[in-house]
Amino acid sequence: MHCPFCRHPDSRVIDSRTADDGLSIRRRRQCPECGRRFTTTETASLTVIKRSGVVEPFSREKVMSGVRKACQGRPVTEADLAVLAQQVEESVRSSGIAQFDANEIGLAILPHLRELDEVAYLRFASVYQAFESLADFDAAIAELRAHPGGGSDSDASDSRADARTPEE
Fold this sequence. Notes:
It holds the Pfam family Zn_ribbon_NrdR. By secondary structure, the chain is an alpha+beta fold.
């Protein structure tokens, strides 16, 4: 680490502390050349590789934006979306990998979205799991019924689904 005052190429760490709920480390350093002290913050960077090949930093806001579209008309608040984006970032970071395909981020969203709202989950899953037919939706709905416990309105969605005809 270069000293920001004299540009000496080395510095000594005096103190280290975690910051931002453990997502970064704050270090207090001292330059052996000029003796001045300064603070650095270290974070592990997450990058996303888009389909076009472009690499960009992970963004909670982009996660929220994509999920917001799936949640249109559903009882999901902005606070719910913020919590979901934080959960997704934490699960991605816990893998220990620093670079992900955009599709992998989408797949990481699914379990958290299923807990938040099952209808939004189906909308989102239809894109990220590449549903190609009604049979794919039927299989996803059967999986939701076989393993309930996702969204808060799972009983209501089951009764509405049973009342529909196959053409709907």
